[in-house]
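Pilot study result, target chain (74 residues):
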Amino acid sequence: MTSGNAAPQDHELDTLLAFLAQQRYVLRLTAYGLTEEQVRLSPTASTLCIGGLIKHIPPTAPGRRAVTSASKLP
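Predicted structure:
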């Protein structure tokens, strides 16, 4: 993915996986070049920060893999 856009897909699952890959790509772009202190900042009214979002991704990955594997069963 070079343009930042998810490519069109033929199946719903493939579309979802492409969308998730796009979101991870955008998060990496957002965090690129930030210091540790900047990653911890919450510059808006939200309590979310870039570091918190990055920390949240690995724990949710096994669930995505389980859903993907189950949906490809005959």
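One observation from the pilot: Residues 12-68 form one domain. A full batch analysis is planned for the follow-on phase.
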